[in-house]
Each structure stands twice: as structure tokens, then as C-alpha cells.
Predict the structure.
Amino acid sequence: MTDTGISEKDPDQTEDFVPACTNHTLMKTTAWVVMVVAVSLSLYQLYTAGLVALTALVQRSIHLGAVLTLTFLLKPAFPGLSKNKLSFLVVLDWILVALSVYCTFYICNNLSDIFDRQGDWLLQDRVVSIMGVLLVLEACRRVIGIFMTGICAMSIVYAMYGPYMPDLIIHKGYSIERIATTLWLTTEGIFGLPIGVAATFVFVFVLFGAILETTGGGAFFIDLAYALTGRFSGGPAKASVVASGFMGSVSGSAVGNVAATGSFTIPMMKKVGYRPHMAGAIEAAASTGGQLMPPIMGAGAFLMAEFTNTSYLTIIKVALVPAVMYYITVLVFVHYEAKKFGLKGQPKESLPKIGSVLKNGLHFIIPVLILIYVLMANYSPMMAGFIAVVSTLSISILMNFIRWIIRTENRISLSGFAAKEGGLLIRALENGAKNAVMVSVACAAAGIIVGMVSLTGMGLKFSSLVIDLSFGIKALAILLIAAASLVLGMGLPVTASYIVLATLAGPALMDMGVPVMVAHMIVFWYSQDSNVTPPVSLASFAGAAIAKASPMRTAFASWKLAKGLYIIPLVMAYRPLLGMGDNYELLHWEVILTMITTTLGLVAFASALERFFIRRATLLETGLFWLAAAGLLWTSFWTEAAGFILLVIALALQKWYPGPQRAGQRPGLP
């Protein structure tokens, strides 16, 4: 049943409280309203994505109105309050729903007048604007938390009291009327670029992932990963990495990825001998890579396309190689963990048969191939998502209908089949809308920050501050941005973290000569680090919960496994790892050389950190691995050559020199 924050009355309650039957009726009514709004929102998004284009302010306001409605019905205001507060809070939730609908309707009903009187606002314009901003702040508090709500509130306070700020960030200040109307009645605030992307590209791809998961596509990709990798050393862990790559490429959510694939992969890893915290960490690190892996890289990738004025196809092309490198790094760490502790693969007979897996689920690959084709055919991402959703539903229903025809025993009636498929469709549409709530609320709240940064000119001031603190050194500026992303990531979801960093810190990198695409890709990568970096690492904590392990121990382990997340962006800043030079021209030989040396450098780095390759490394070999990693990841051709030679020497010693053994120790154990 839908979580509305309403529970049934205890038998011991007094007559002063709402009767149990009323509570139960209200819960059913709320659940029904949530379903209707969620399904309607999904259908509305498909309609505007593939059939009819609406005015930006109308399209975005209707989307946000539905999202606010779902937020206030699904997320209780104060989950910890006792039951005697529930009746009041339920009424409050429904009042907020009514206000959300009214504020949305006001924009749609008065659109022409709003455009005509820009800057000459009526009293009702100001009142509606203030209500709308407060509704978004309350939704942000419920969905994201107090941290981001506080940042939004601070940005508004900063815009109001600019003349009283320190000299470094001083400005003339703005009235409440100017701030509220800018945020609610224009496309420069809440209805700006972030919510525009969330209400178009992002929603249809979130819906695509929900439909794929609901129709069985998630289970198919997990089974396929096990069939491909389960026999190898540490097979379940490698299957986890591969499955997370498959799922992440269509879901774009690290925590969702952990929940979807981790429920299968983490118990299997523990079963073959992985320590619980390491099993959770492997899943968290692999799932984080899902937001870096094309064709769908999370909401941030669509925002990047808009920020850089670049086609989404270009984003996919330049993101593929670094994403593959990240997964190679995780696989290397996983392999070393398996070898050090003698973890074997699973017996062949216990694994899914690849032929059977493909036979039962090959049709799930077709929508992904269609998606890649339409993106490469230069369709808009919104149209590509629409086609992917329609093709997934069509193929799933067709395959189920064929199975229904073939089946002769215990076959349900045609009406029963239609009802079953209809129920599946409704559940998929409802889940898609619910899954999009967090991203949309985060983007709406981020619109407040972006609007105030734009209004006050804070972006230029922050950019100058980063340049001053880094002394104009790119590597130091990138490290400052990484530190800022880590702090922001403690309270902001990945999408919001990327928006804030791209708005504030991205211009600083571009002022240092970093190409705009590279600067945004660096910021995009570092916005993911909060998933796996202590003290607040949501994907790691999700993995720890499934693995029944220590959250902080899991977080530190995932932080180690995800080291590619920190190293690869540094390489991007100095070398053409994205396949582009300053003028977006391909530098063929240099690109290929950079890809090879960076991959080898990451392997050397993992070997040095784990002190393992074929066997446990001696101190000499560990030192050689560290030097090789430094040389291969440096920007000079000669240091790369030296690093390669040192890596070859270290590998030769590993191969032909047996290394010291401790008394009573199994070979390979540290």
C-alpha cells in the first residue's frame, strides 16, 4: 500500500481520535489518488515527449504540480510524530496539494497576461509566487532533506541582503517581490533549465527504466551477467559489476541500482566467501559507475547536453571510454580480492544457462538497441526516450501474448490475460512517476539556487575565488572542486550536486583553458563521488544494509574500489581522454595512446594499492607499481614510457620471482 504517513488506529486509542475505518478509507483514497496522478503524469510526459510540444512554462509547471502533489501525499511531513498528530498532518498535506494545483493552474490560466506584465506584477502574482516557492522548499525538505533546503533558503537570503555581505560577495540586493516572481513566474528560476530537463528527457528515461524493470528486464540483465562471468574467480562479484553496468546504463541511479541488483548479487558474493562489507562495497562501486555508462547516464548527462549546447549523442560518445576504464578498475580490484582470498567461481551447473537466458529474455535487448539507433540517428533524447518506452511496452506485451498462445495447460482466459497486462502497465507507469519524484524535486530546488546565482552574479565571484585559491593550477582547482562536491554530496543528490557545481565551479575551469565539454565532464564525474565517499555515501549504505555489514566499513571499502572516479577526471584535464582537443577535433594517435596508458596506469595503481597482481607484491614490486602508475598517468611521453618499462619489470618479477612466503600461510594471502 502507498506510504502516506497514515496508519490505522490502535484498538487502545480513545474516542478523541479518528476512527479506524475512517483512517482506512482515507488511506485507500490517498493510494487511489496517488495512482491516478502518477499514471496521468507518466501518460502526460509521453504525450508531450512524442506527440505534442507545449510552451516551456506550461509544460514544466504541470509537471511540477503533479510532482508536488505526489510528494505531499507520499512523503509525510514529520514521520516520527505520534498518531495523535496524524489527523492534522493529513489535512495539512491535502491543503498543500490544493495549493500546488492552484499555483500550477494559475500559470497555465494566465500565461499570456504573465508574459505581458513582466516586471509589472499584480498582488496575486506576488502571492502565488511566494506560495509556489514555499511549496518547493517544503517538498525539498521532505524528499531531499534539510541540508539542500537550507542551501536554497541561504541563496534567497543572500539575494535579499546583498549590501550587507562581505566585500568579496557583495551586491545591491533584491526585494522579496523580485525574488519570488523571478523564481516562479519566469524560466530563470524554479522553471529554468534543471526542471526543464527533468520534465522532458529525464522523466521518459526514468519511465523507460521502470518499465524495463517491471516487465522483467532487470532480472534478465542480472541472469545474463551471471551466465557470462559466474564461472570465473570471484564470479558473483564480477557478475555484480557487469550487471550493474547493464542496469546502470538504462537506470542512471546508483542507489536504485544497488537496490535492484544488490538484492541478488550481494547474497551470492557472501555465499562464495566475500566478506559482507566487501560484498556491499563492490555493489556500491559498480552501481556508481552506472551513472557514467552510456546510453543513459542519469539526469546529469541530459543537463550537460543543455549546459554545453551539445547533442546528447556527442555526450555518449565522449563518455563511453572513461566509463569503461572505470569499470575495468573496479573489476581489477574485485579480481585481486578474489585471488588474495582464494575465492572460486560458481559451479557451472548452478549458473543460468546463457542459451536459456537469451531465449527467455533476448527481446529485452531490442529496446536498448532501438534506443541506441535512434540516438545515433540524431533524434532528440526526448523522442528517443519516447520510442524506447513504446518499443519496450510493445515488445513485452507481444512476447507475453505469444507465450499465452503457445501455452496449452492452465492457460488463463483472454480477458484475464488483458487484465494482467493492463495491471502490469499501470504499475509500470505508476512506478516511473514515483521514481522521478526525487529528481524533479531536486531540480526544482536547484532552480532556486541557479536563479539566485544568476540574479546576483555569484557565479563569477565564486569562479574568481576558485582561481585565486588554486593559484591558477588546474590540478589544484580540480581538487578544490572535488572537495566541494564531497561536501555538497553529503546533503544533495547527484543531479543537484552537478547543477550547483556546474553553475559555480565549471566557469573557473573554463577560465583556466579547460574546454567546456571537459570541464562539465569533470564536474559530472566528481558529482558522483558522494555515492561512495565517507562519511555520507548513500550507495555504500544501501549496499551495507543488504549485506548486513558495517555502513562505515562498507563506505571506506567502496571508496577504495572507486578510485577511478577520482583519477580519471584529472587525466581528462590534461590529456584528450574524451577524444577531443581544444577545438573538438579528434587527435587519433594521441587519443589512443592516452586511453592505453591511462588504463595501464589504473591497473598499476590498483596493484600498488592492493599490493597484489599474480601474488602478493614485495615492497620492491609495490614501489615499482606506484612509480609505474605515476609515470603512466603523467602527461609527458617520456614519463609514460618510463612508467610502462617499470610496469613490465614489476610484472616480470611477479611472474618469475616466487616472492617471500610466511610460515603457515596459503599462497596469495596477505
